[in-house]
Description:
By secondary structure, the protein is of the alpha/beta class. Helix content is 31%, strand content 30%. The protein is built from 18 helices and 26 strands. Mean pLDDT is 88; it is low at 519-534.
Amino acid sequence: xxxxxxxxxxxxxxxxxxxxxxxxxxxxxxxxxxxxxxxxxxxxxxxxxxxxxxxxxxxxxxxxxxxxxxxxxxxxxxxxxxxxxxxxxxxxxxxxxxxxxxxxxxxxxxxxxxxxxxxxxxxxxxxxxxxxxxxxxxxxxxxxxxxxxxxxxxxxxxxxxxxxxxxxxxxxxxxxxxxxxxxxxxxxxxxxxxxxxxxxxxxxxxxxxxxxxxxxxxxxxxxxxxxxxxxxxxxxxxxxxxxxxxxxxxxxxxxxxxxxxxxxxxxxxxxxxxxxxxxxxxxxxxxxxxxxxxxxxxxxxxxxxxxxxxxxxxxxxxxxxxxxxxxxxxxxxxxxxxxxxxxxxxxxxxxxxxxxxxxxxxxxxxxxxxxxxxxxxxxxxxxxxxxxxxxxxxxxxxxxxxxxxxxxxxxxxxxxxxxxxxxxxxxxxxxxxxxxxxxxxxxxxxxxxxxxxxxxxxxxxxxxxxxxxxxxxxxxxxxxxxxxxxxxxxxxxxxxxxxxxxxxxxxxxxxxxxxxxxxxxxxxxxxxxxxxxx
Length: 534
């Protein structure tokens, strides 16, 4: 069997920066190939060239043995390439069949004598029939008449895949396909990938989730710093540990080593009671949320994105108006305080979007490391900034938190990688020794090495007697780092568990709304004991 895709010395440069350097890749027809690598390794650039979104600086692409030049994704689709992006490109108000057919509408025909002539009117009946047959052929379990906005995230992803299959593609590229799926949807997607392979479709998966790579890939290509550093068969000799080491270039600890230090359930450091809020459109986004965090405890918040986690973080950080409720630190009411006031009360904040809410990109690292704390006497005495102390603070935190800077001694944060920008935020908040840490998506979009470091810092902070609230879309992160987990669905808490007593499957059922918690005794609920109803 020949190569369906081959690249020869494929290179992409932006001025003096080389995003991809002399990539030589061979993918056989009908195989499942995983492309893995750290954030910034060049995976997206490579796939963008294969899909026609970027034009290579040099080198060539061969499709089915023939050299090709893609000037746009439309050229790639015509050749037989399809791509499902991490952020779906669907029209929510349209039906499943309308989204799949979009751009290739079937027109009605009328008879004029012995000839059939198309008229500019859509033949909805034929479109529905065509999509129903496509769904049946690939066994995708979708209603062609359902509105996309009413579908689960997993079902929307299936619509995206069918949209590509309708265009008779030979190669399907999936960009971070499990990023927003619950465990049950991930299992279903992996099964669908296996079915597509049986039908002769070549599947390329871009991902950082090594456990899922092991479940579905035939071969795995690893990228590091713009280069292809190796391709390995997915067999018993290839482990997630060896793959991580190939990605980073050094041994990496993938499993979080929790401390045996026991949660002090007698000491509540942070409490939320009956918190409710509406967004700017008047929609109820937080519904009577209550929870407690104790000394030596990490409380995780799990849920499919868009179910109130972002709004909860805004409320806790003083960035959103509330309707009712209470937020207390060590028994003191802090609801409605601004972030700077919350910091004075002992709350550290690691926001969801580091670039929009966590750092100021044009400012140097030293100023970002005191941002939010710049009024402290050590940095600012009687309105005069102490630049010597600011520099000393920067030097100390850069070394302690392993922040990798460019040649410039104090560069703007914009010059740092995502992982190092995140370390700036972590260093700033941890170094001020807060009582409680509120963190949202602490490792989103950063590499394996930086993730390992931040996980270790969170565990170390917990063991100092602090309380941590951690919101994350990564279930493995939530379960691996936390002591207790609450699940949010449509703005309310629907489940609460001790982390070592709940399975991924069970969490997935609550995240999807298939199961919900029925509270019986508030005292029991605080300890993660509840009665459940299906």
